[in-house]
Amino acid sequence: MKKIAIIFLLFLGVQSTSFSQSLDEYLKVAAENNPELKAYFNEYLASLEKVPQVGALPDPELTMGFFFQPMERFMGNQQADIQLMQMFPWFGMLKTQKDEASKMALAQYEVFQDAKYRLFYQVKNTWYQLYRLEEEIRITEENLEILKQYERLALIRFQSADIGTGSGPSNMQQATSMNSGSSTSSASSMGGMSGGMTSGTSGKSSSKGGSSMGTSSSMNGGGSGMSDVLRVRIQIKELENTLALLEDSRLPIKAEFNQLLNRDINEVVSIADSLSGSVVSWERQALLDSITQNNPMLKMLDAEEEAYEAQKKMARLEGRPMLGAGVNYMPFSPRTENGMPMGGNDMVMPMLRLTIPIYRKKYNALQKEAELKQLAVQQRRENTVNQLTTRWSTALRDLDDATRRTKLYREQTDLAGQTLNLLMTSYATDGRDFEEVLRVQQQLLDYQLKLITSIVDQHVTIAMLENLAATELN
User: Got the DSSP string for 277-318?
Assistant: First the structure.
């Protein structure tokens, strides 16, 4: 009996592997290698190149005309007519155009920032899901080993019961064959039990004394031991199937993680040894204020609003005249009149040009367009604040729920472990309540898995809040 108790109380612990690469390093790799993020950054760089374009003066215009035959004029024969003109926008127009382009570039930068924080959230979420999967595999393997220990214990009890009641060597062979785990050997053992029952009946017909009671005890002990073995084998098969499914799920999650980092899908991913429960140290209202101030989408809309304000100013300035300054150069060659050379001096004439914007409808429409776009951005910003507030409150609710579940499942795991120890001791002593042992063991496995899920949910929710606030919260 002491041997049985020692075997039953043995547990196999699987230690997590220690990894050197941290999540922060993966985030850095993702920021450097993710192709979508690099595309957003290049779009931002492209928008910056717009600033020097709109801040430059219009190209000067050069007009050149040549005569096939010199035109006779009083000053001589004109050979050509060359004009050079530079137009100048109204005062402040170039500065306003540069300001508008800069604001649009800033809006594009905030789009890049939003893409970066969304990528960080995806990397964190996938990494946490991979951690949860590895922990589920580890816990499942531990529980599978424990169930195999239960199976060995049930077999030992079955063999001990047969020997103690003198059921004969046939049941000993059945117990040995059951240890192989095949369905054929289980059926053979069941047949052996029937043989034992027949033998007990023969003994009863020859002797009506204590042998009848001994046979009845043999039947009950053998049947109980047999059912214990079969029950635990049913759970072993179910757990083996669950473990196979978990291991099959490793590849797609790892592939998703590596693709976010733009690496080969088979690249090794380092996972933390353990994750503890996490909380947000910020006050809730302060967190909401940070979201409404720092969220990249709100900053993008603010930059767009400022850009449309600059566009309104540009529309007003476009309704002002444009000034042009230039020079007209006319080369002359001397002409002969009555044998005397006449003229031949080149002429240089300064020129001014002025546009007259008299068609006002298009300028008024430009200004109205900018005003309506600015109003649309303001309304979109208000709607975005409402959506962010909803996501903030939902995330806090999920975080509170995950925190409560973490506390609950820790307590439930401890209680289930204590209950299981008591049941194990009872079964090792008198062989009772094996079905209850298996039920509590299944409960313990369920609580362990739910505890891992709740801890991961905490970290994923905090990652979501960090994505909304565009900052680290711990």
Answer: -----S-HHHHHHHHHHH-HHHHHHHHHHHHHHHHHHHHHHH
Q: Lowest-confidence range among 6-10, 73-77, 179-183, 371-375? A: 6-10
The helix, strand and coil proportions of the chain, stated in percent and rounded to the nearest 5, come to 70, 10, 20
Do residues 290 and 469 make contact, with C-beta atoms less than 8 angstroms apart? yes
| Cα–Cα distance measured from residue 124 to residue 133, given in angstroms and rounded to the nearest whole number | 14
Residue 58 lies in a domain: no
Q: What is the CATH number of the domain that holds 236?
A: 1.20.1600.10
Would 42 be classed as within a structural domain?
Answer: no
Q: How far apart are CA 75 and CA 72, in angstroms?
A: 8
Predicted local distance difference test score (pLDDT) of residue 186: 34
pTM here is 0.78
235 CA to centre of own chain: 34
The number of distinct structural domains making up the chain is: 1
**Other CB atoms within 10 A of residue 38 CB:** 15
78 assigned to some structural domain: no
DSSP string, 198-235: HHHHHHHHH--SHHHHHHHHHHHHHHHHHHHHHHHHHH
Q: Which tokens belong to 53?
A: 């374009």
CA distances from 310 to 166, 378, 380 (A): 101, 15, 19
74 pLDDT band (50/70/90 cuts)?
confident
Residue range of the domain that includes 401: 2-33+89-202+210-320+357-469
Name the phi and psi angles at 86, rounded to 5: -120, 125
Residue 362: inside a domain? yes
89: DSSP letter: P
